[in-house]
Amino acid sequence: MPRFVDVALPIPLDRAFTYGLGELEACVGARVLVPFSGQKLMGIVVRVHDEAPVADDPSKPIEIKRVEQVLDDEALLSDELMELGRWIAAYYCAPLGETLRGMVPLMAEVKRHFVYRIGERGRAVLYEGAAKGSSLRSKLSADDQNREYAALNYLEAGDAVKAATIRSATGANKALLDGMVKKKWLVREAVAESRDARRVEMVAVLRDSQGLGIREQGLGGEGSGPRVQGPGPRAQGSEGDSVAVRGIEPEPEVPDAGHPDGAGAGENVDRVSGLEFRVSGLGPVSEGPVGQTPDGQIPAELSVAARRLPKLNENQLAVMAELAGCGGRELVRELRVRLERAGVPESTLGTLVKRGLVRLEEVAQSFSVSGLGAHGRRFAHEHRLNEAQTAALATIVAAMDKGGFAPHLLFGVTGSGKTAVYIAAIQQALDRGRSALLLVPEIGLTPGTAMHMVAAFGGEVALLHSQLTPDKRAEQWHRIRRGEARVVIGTRSAVFSPLTNLGLILVDEEHDGAYKQEETPRYHGRDVAVMRAKLAGCAVVLGSATPSLESWHNAERGRYARIDMLERVSNRPMPAVELVDMREEFRATGQEQIFSRKLLEETQATLDRGEQAIILLNRRGYSFVVMCRKCGEKMECENCAISLTYHKGQGSGIREQGLEGDVAPPGSRLECHYCGFKVGVPKACPHCTSEHLYFLGAGSQQGEERLAGLFPGARIGRMDRDTVRTRGDMERLLERLHSGEINLLVGTQMIAKGHDIHGVTFVGVVGADFALGLPDFRSAERVFQLLTQVSGRAGRGDLPGKVLVQTYQPAHYVHEFSQRHDFVGFAAREMYFRRAMKYPPLSVLANVLVQGETLEEVLGWSARIGRWLERKKFPGVRVLGPAPAPISRIKRIYRYHLLLKAEQRSRLGVLLKEFVPWLEAEEIPRRNVVVDVDAVHLM
Ligand SMILES: Nc1ncnc2c1ncn2[C@@H]1O[C@H](COP(=O)(O)OP(=O)(O)OP(=O)(O)O)[C@@H](O)[C@H]1O
Ligand SMILES: [Zn+2]
């Protein structure tokens, strides 16, 4: 028996620690509790071995500490994920323990109790036992054997149950249960002890992944013929019994049942009688490349192998149908109301839970499952994939079928219908018995994509977003690991989901900076996704209308296969983009205005036509600079080297004529957007006591106020981080846009994110090229992305769109290319600049950020690092700096940085390998020196 384990601990040290095991057993990838400098820490076993550590000084033998507790019987992190963790730690120069900690969201589980679930082997035993009687070879007494069977029976439905509950129901005590865990009949899991009952409610979930073969066919579809988008039945369960199930088909035009005057009793009953299980024989699942059928349909995708068909009475069918009709899950509270109206007894739900057809889950109340019904119906209108989509899908499916690592860049213009391709591709992965992962930059900002997925895959989706509580996150994690959720949608850390048998990884809006983690480990979710696909040996698709130059470069070098979708769906044209030269505008009007005459005209015309307009003002707040007219000083944050932003209060007393020297309305404040620091608006300049304060630069709040004055009849909405704080806020705002309740939307770059609002025909852009002046080599790329993405919101419905961009730099090449929707041209031009300046992707870059509480120590450390690098002269690496970071102080922390530019990654690797030990030897604290490999944000 191995005697030692090496444990990676969540501390900023780049090594593992050896502990003795004693009588305990542990495997690589399991969590353990160990003593560490006076405290108890949870770490992950990275090696199990027999090599006693040798002391440097033999006269002082090392005292080996013991592992206190092993928390997992099996590896929590699979070999694949452990390997990924090691790669991240090495590539991003991060301590392994801190890296692994971020990969398992279960650190909150220590003081928890255990629950038991039936395992695969337990099921086999149960069925065999039923057929042949109990095993004679067991050492247990006949009574204990009976208790074991009773426990298996009790757990058969698959739910997780506490030991105490099992004992009272079956007499099996904890020792007996743990014996069963050892035999792998049962699985043991740690879960949270207590829940805050007020914040949690129950959701009923259709258990379709359990081989029951029941799927809703579509929400409002016609119900026949193969369809590509939307929920379709798929292969599940064992292959043995070939039975195809066409599933439950709710009738098309059922009104949103959640609506008070919606589904009455009659309608629900109608829906019940409309149910049908059609069973037919079936051919093999999907042979041959998809997309080669003449009509562009996916062949054989309706093939479903189901293990057994449950017999249900009418009431039970009603509940199943109701659940299927709202995407496979619904709040129990809501469901009850509707079932009561339909005259279905309350106990029916309980019966279905007992029969294992429906599962109850707890959700935090903030998770708005309710409303999915309405969303589901809106999303449900399905499209037959067009030629480009079909070809894209065929390429992805071919890669999946060929097997092995296959990276792709899906370059699809805005409105080309990438989401439908994602859904179809995920479906194909599931049909092949494999799992799929979809990464999105931020679920809260684009709830649409997630809703589409939930509508399409119902209970098989695990949604991992930032608003999950640690408990919820842990629960989702277990669900995924058990294979109950084979489709994971989430933000960057979802790339660590414990999915097995991955078939496909999709990264939507792969250019988005939100994929970059700005704390240790500073990984890039997109690049980790590619690595995960490599380790899993599966296909990966990075999708965007404005790919990052990194991915574009990889495609040009042939590392990624490129898939193009160059046209919008349904022959919709790209919007016409026009520039307004704001210097001309000033000359003509003699006034500095936020909005040009042309922009106001176009907005008015759009509203007059009954269409919707969007106006981008990419700064939040009212004014983003407050300056003294007399001494010229700007109001800065106490903690950061950043101008304070003026946020206007909502109190009365708003003056129409500017704000100069005036008291701001009640509730007004100056705010730092980096640290959150707030102060009241001073009556006089703190530097020179002059009363002439000057408010410059219009943010979205001012934009809204001005537009309200200019268009009194407009129904205005604002979308920025002040008005949208939660996913719920965003969902409500989008709902009001979809319904047309809002016809003029003003906001920051949030409005540019993948929203698909069909009524928008005009987009106005104010001050977006301001960012061209930022000291970051990616500034042109970012402005191009923003212009293209925001333009992409126009003309997504039946009417064509128009875009007006106000600029002070009309000659900049960003405008030239974005006006023509020419990403390829832009990329070529930008690549030329990157090559000349040796910037990524034509070099490898790491940002070494030195930070500390006093300027002296920061200067001292960065100077020493600079001198060391100069002395070492690492070949193939250029060092820029040390210099103050563009934002030289944030949250009272001083910041200096050095940029390392290497011709090849291996050259940078050589440097970094020596750098970290050198820091340690020099006693420069690790947490004060951040090494940001492939840095995205250089400010
Ligand atoms: N084959 C199709 N025929 C008609 N409409 C389609 C088809 N496929 C998708 N659509 C619709 O086209 C619209 C745009 O699709 P989607 O939102 O997926 O675009 P996208 O490529 O993700 O764009 P963006 O990059 O701007 O987010 C949606 O309203 C979608 O329902
Ligand atoms: Zn600040």
TrEMBL record:
Cofactor entry: Zn(2+)
Gene Ontology BP annotations: DNA recombination; DNA replication initiation; DNA replication, synthesis of primer; double-strand break repair
Stored InterPro entries: DEAD/DEAH_box_helicase_dom (IPR011545), Helicase_ATP-bd (IPR014001), Helicase_C-like (IPR001650), P-loop_NTPase (IPR027417), PriA (IPR005259), PriA_3primeBD (IPR041222), PriA_3primeBD_sf (IPR042115), PriA_C (IPR041236)
Cofactor binding notes: Binds 2 zinc ions per subunit.
Region Disordered, annotated ranges: 214-242, 249-268
Keyword hit for DNA damage: no
UniProt entry keywords in alphabetical sequence: ATP-binding, DNA replication, DNA-binding, Helicase, Hydrolase, Isomerase, Metal-binding, Nucleotide-binding, Primosome, Zinc
EC number: 5.6.2.4
Any one of the GO CC terms: primosome complex
Residue positions binding Zn(2+) 1: C628, C631, C685, C688
Residues covered by the Helicase ATP-binding domain: 399-565
Entry's transmembrane regions: none
Molecular function via GO: 3'-5' DNA helicase activity; ATP binding; ATP hydrolysis activity; DNA binding; zinc ion binding
SMART domains with a match to the protein in the record: DEXDc (SM00487), HELICc (SM00490)
A Pfam family recorded for this sequence: Helicase_C
Catalytic reaction equation(s): Couples ATP hydrolysis with the unwinding of duplex DNA by translocating in the 3'-5' direction; ATP + H2O = ADP + phosphate + H(+)
Record's keyword annotation contains Transmembrane helix: no
Superkingdom as given in the UniProt entry: Bacteria
Positions annotated to bind Zn(2+) 2: C637, C640, C672, C675
Subunit relationships: Component of the replication restart primosome.
Annotated function: Initiates the restart of stalled replication forks, which reloads the replicative helicase on sites other than the origin of replication. Recognizes and binds to abandoned replication forks and remodels them to uncover a helicase loading site. Promotes assembly of the primosome at these replication forks.
Family stated for the protein in its record: Belongs to the helicase family. PriA subfamily.
HAMAP family listed in its UniProt record: PriA (MF_00983)
Entry protein name: Replication restart protein PriA
Gene encoding the protein: priA
